[in-house]
Design brief:
Catalytic activity: 4 Fe(II)-[cytochrome c] + O2 + 8 H(+)(in) = 4 Fe(III)-[cytochrome c] + 2 H2O + 4 H(+)(out)
Cofactor: Cu(2+); heme; heme b
Helix content: over 70%
Oligomer: single chain
CATH class: Mainly Alpha
Shape: globular
Radius of gyration: 23 Å
Pathway: Energy metabolism; oxidative phosphorylation
Strand content: under 5%
Subcellular location: Cell membrane
Number of helices: 16
Number of strands: 2
GO molecular function, one term: metal ion binding
Structural class: mainly alpha
Largest sheet: 2 strands, antiparallel
C-alpha cells in the first residue's frame, strides 16, 4: 500500500469543476445584474426580444447560480478536500476516476441543454426546480454518479475517522437526492395523454399538497446546496488556511445534527398566510426560530477558530473572505427566522426584503466561501503561487461594498413596500396603488443594479486572478505550507 508521505493526489476532476465554477459564476451573476437593471429600467427588457425579458432570464439566473456556480464549487472542493481528509488519491481507483469524469461531462452538457431549455420557455414553473422531466432524469444520473464516487472514496480511505467536512458533504448528497426526487415527481403529458410537447409534464401533486412538497424542497435547496456543503468547505479551508484547529469538534457535531433535524421542517414558512393548514404554518415558524441555534453554533465555531489569531485578517485576504462569510451566515440565519415570524411575515411577504435576505446569504456567505476555497486550492492544484494578493484585497472590498448596498437597499425597499401595501385611510380604503409603490422604490432598484455591477466587477477580478494563477504565475517547487499558529 502506498504510504501517506508519498501520496500524490489527483486534482484533474477538481480542476474541471473549478473551470465550470468560474464560467457559470460569471454568467449567472452577469444575468442577475441585467435583470436587476431591468427592474430599475424596464426598457432593458427589449434588448434581446422575448429571450431577454425578465421572465425568461430570472429562472436562468437562479438556476445557473445554484446548479452551475454553487454546485460546481461543491464538486470542485469535494474532489479536492475528500482525498486529503480520507488520505487516498483518486488515481488509485480507475473506476472512481472514470465515474467522476463521466459525472463532469454529463454535468457540463446537461447544464448547457438545461439553460437553453429555460431560455426557450420550457419550464415546470417551480422555484429552484424549473427543469422539465427529461432534464430532471439527467440531474439524477449526475447526482448518483457523485454518490458512487463519494462512497467509493470513503470505502478505500486510509483515514479511519471521517472529518466533519465529510459529514456535511454526505448530508448534501443524501438531502438533495431525497428531496429533489420527491418534488419533481411528474407525469409527462405527451406520452400519457398524447397532448402537449414531449418535454411537458404535470406534477403528481395537486393544489396545496403541491405547494407543500415544492417548499419542502425549495427551502431545503437552500439547506442542502447553499448551507450544508458550504459549512463543509469552511470547516476544511479555514483551519487549513489559518493553521488553527477547529475551535470545538463537539460543537461541530452538535450543530450538524441540529441542522439535520430542524432544517428539514422549516419549509412551510414560505406558505404563511396561504391555504396551507394553520398548524403547518405555525410549525414552519417554530422550526425556523429554533434553527437559529444550530446555525449560529456552526458560525460561532468558525469565528472562534480564529481566537487569538485575528491579526491574520490584516495579513491574509482569504481569511478576510472566510471570516466575513461566517459573519454573513450569522446575519442571514438570524434574518430568515425573523421573517418567518407571522407578524413580521405579514409585512415582508412578497416584498423585496425577501430577495435582500437571499442575497446577503448567497453573495456574502456562499460566493465568498467558494471563491476563498478556490483561491486556497489553486496554488496546490496548479503548483503556481497566487498571481496577485493585492487584487484579492481590492476584490474583497469591492464585493463587500456591493453586498452591503444590495441588502440595505432591498431591506428599505421591502419594508417600504410592506407598509405601503397595508396602509389604509380613515375609511379603511387602501392609500396607495401598486404603481405608487413601484415609483417610490425606483431609487432602491437602481442601487441594487449598481451593487450587481460592483459584484460582477469583483468576480471578473477573481476570474482574472485565477486564470493568471493557472497559466502564468510563478511556479512552485513544493506545496505552500500552512501557516503555523506560533508564527
Amino acid at each position: 500500500m502506498q504510504s501517506n508521505a508519498a501520496l500524490e493526489y489527483d486534482y484533474s476532476v477538481a480542476k474541471l469543476f473549478t473551470y465550470t465554477a468560474i464560467l457559470f459564476g460569471f454568467l449567472g451573476m452577469l444575468i442577475g445584474t441585467l435583470i436587476a437593471a431591468q427592474l430599475a429600467f424596464p426598457e432593458l427588457n427589449y434588448l434581446l426580444g422575448e429571450y431577454g425579458t425578465f421572465s425568461r432570464l430570472r429562472p436562468v439566473h437562479t438556476t445557473v447560480v445554484i446548479y452551475g456556480f454553487t454546485v460546481s464549487g461543491v464538486f470542485a472542493t469535494f474532489y479536492y478536500s475528500a482525498q486529503r481528509v480520507l488520505k487516498v488519491s483518486m488515481a488509485e481507483s480507475k473506476f472512481i476516476m472514470f465515474i467522476a469524469k463521466l459525472q463532469f461531462w454529463i454535468y457540463l452538457v446537461g447544464a448547457l441543454v438545461a439553460t437553453i431549455s429555460l431560455l426557450l420557455g420550457i419550464t415546470q414553473n417551480k422555484e429552484y426546480a424549473q427543469y422539465e422531466w427529461p432534464i430532471d432524469l439527467v440531474i439524477v444520473v449526475i447526482w448518483v454518479l457523485w454518490g458512487i464516487a463519494m462512497f467509493g472514496l470513503i470505502g478505500i480511505r486510509r483515514e479511519k475517522a471521517l472529518y466533519i467536512s465529510m459529514w456535511y458533504f454526505i448530508a448534501c448528497f443524501l438531502g438533495v437526492a431525497m428531496l429533489y426526487l420527491f418534488n419533481n415527481m411528474a407525469v409527462p403529458t405527451y406520452f400519457v395523454a398524447g397532448v402537449g410537447s414531449a418535454m411537458h409534464s404535470v406534477s403528481m401533486y395537486a393544489g396545496t399538497n403541491d405547494a407543500l412538497v415544492q417548499w419542502w424542497w425549495g427551502h431545503n435547496a437552500v439547506a442542502f446546496v447553499f448551507t450544508v456543503p458550504i459549512v463543509a468547505m469552511i470547516y476544511y479551508f479555514l483551519p487549513k488556511e489559518s493553521g488553527q484547529a477547529v475551535y470545538s469538534y463537539k460543537l461541530s457535531l452538535l450543530s450538524f445534527w441540529g441542522l439535520m433535524f430542524v432544517y428539514l421542517w422549516a419549509g412551510s414558512h414560505h406558505l404563511l398566510w396561504s391555504t396551507v393548514p394553520d398548524w403547518m404554518q405555525t410549525m414552519g415558524s417554530v422550526f425556523s426560530v429554533v434553527l437559529i441555534l444550530p446555525s449560529w453554533g456552526s458560525a460561532i465555531n468558525m469565528l472562534l477558530t480564529m481566537k487569538g489569531e485575528w491579526n491574520q485578517l490584516t495579513e491574509n485576504p482569504l481569511i478576510k473572505f472566510m471570516v466575513l462569510a461566517s459573519t454573513f451566515y450569522m446575519l442571514s440565519t438570524l434574518e430568515g427566522p425573523i421573517q418567518a415570524v407571522k407578524s413580521v411575515n405579514a409585512i415582508a411577504h412578497f416584498t423585496d426584503w425577501i430577495p435582500g435576505h437571499v442575497h446577503d446569504g448567497v453573495l456574502g456567505w456562499v460566493a465568498f466561501m467558494i471563491m476563498a476555497a478556490l483561491f486556497h486550492m489553486a496554488p496546490r492544484m496548479f503548483k503556481r503561487e497566487i498571481y496577485s494578493k493585492k487584487l484579492i484585497e481590492a476584490q474583497f472590498w469591492i464585493q463587500t461594498t456591493a453586498v452591503v448596498l444590495y441588502f440595505t437597499s432591498m431591506w428599505i425597499a421591502g419594508i417600504t413596500q410592506g407598509m405601503m401595501w397595508r396602509a389604509v385611510d380613515e375609511y379603511g380604503n387602501l392609500m396607495y396603488s401598486f404603481i405608487d409603490t413601484v415609483t417610490v422604490l425606483h431609487p432602491y432598484y437602481a442601487i441594487r443594479a449598481l451593487a450587481g455591477v460592483l459584484y460582477v466587477t469583483g468576480f471578473v477580478m477573481f476570474a482574472y486572478n485565477m486564470i493568471k494563477t493557472m497559466t502564468s504565475s510563478r511556479e512552485l517547487s513544493e506545496e505552500p505550507q500552512f501557516r503555523s499558529p506560533m508564527a
